[in-house]
Amino acid sequence: MISNKAKYAFRALLSVAALPEGETITSAEIARRHAIPHKFLEQILLDLKKAGILESRRGKSGGYVMLRPSDTVSFGEILRLFDGPLAPLPCLSRQAYRPCDECESEALCEIRREFGRAYDASRRILDNRTLADALAGAPATPLTGKEERLVG
Amino acid sequence: MISNKAKYAFRALLSVAALPEGETITSAEIARRHAIPHKFLEQILLDLKKAGILESRRGKSGGYVMLRPSDTVSFGEILRLFDGPLAPLPCLSRQAYRPCDECESEALCEIRREFGRAYDASRRILDNRTLADALAGAPATPLTGKEERLVG
DNA sequence: CATTAACTCTACCTAGATAGTAGGGATATT
DNA sequence: AATATCCCTACTATCTAGGTAGAGTTAATG
């Protein structure tokens, strides 16, 4: 299960990404719309700002807008930001690789092989679907198995 | 990431499943082979026995064997047993369904839609690959998208 | 029939994560 | 100057992961 924090982040991002050009939205408004605890949401929005995804305007009539275009922000990136590596095993993570303490041979490890397959399948989707895709309701494009579109 | 407990369970199961017909293996032997804390492993094996997957023989020269054939035990089933629902959102779980507190319409929820796709992809693999498949090193069979083979 | 090697069960412990709450401080608009 | 907004840090309660510990039960074997 993904954390509440990550889920709130997605809700907030989709609200910001759906904004008409030139408009902003306040943390209070996002919190109200989605019944998210306001102070908790503020922390999340701050994280998103520090990550360079959102931009903020302070003071009266301030609020948030996207800094990066919504079609460059993938679900995988956000999930990693809040919940850490997507990989089911440390030995399968590129960003946080660590061998299993007891593993003798990764190449022969059946667990790694099986979970590697499951991980590939879900990673291809999460790293290639963006906020813009989600808002457009676009169906997933058929995958060739060689995507690198948004994978850093 | 999957828990250590689940990972240990997979290692233990693969050791038991790989046993020649008629042989048993002790918890101590499994623990030694994979450098798993012995008492911790005992709890895990007990869970697997209570779940009806392993069978035990007590007393001197006791040990464990498979109760269910290894080609009927899927990775998904074991993972659910130790780490709970595979679904990334409660509203996507069949076994532990719960609506999101704040969700107004599941049908329109972009988060649910996107994670649903990722979940489907990995669930199809985890629920259709068995211990026997893993030991055989068999490549995944092409999936049609309509599998129900081992999904209870 | 005592010994011993195994499984069985229950209780307990600690560090860290999750999901917030709280209270102010900084800043820009009006 | 007032006010609405974002910014930052500290704190807390609860739960979970990952074990440790110890005693009890059972069955083979010499």
UniProtKB/TrEMBL annotation, chains A, B:
Any Pfam family:
Rrf2
Q: Which InterPro entries match?
A: Tscrpt_reg_Rrf2, WH-like_DNA-bd_sf, WH_DNA-bd_sf
Gene Ontology molecular function, alphabetical: DNA binding; DNA-binding transcription factor activity
Domain of life, per lineage? Bacteria
Q: What are the record keywords, sorted?
A: DNA-binding
GO cellular component annotations of the record? cytosol
Work out whether the entry's keyword set contains DNA-binding: yes
The record, for NCBIfam families, names: rrf2_super
State what protein this is by name.
Transcriptional regulator, BadM/Rrf2 family
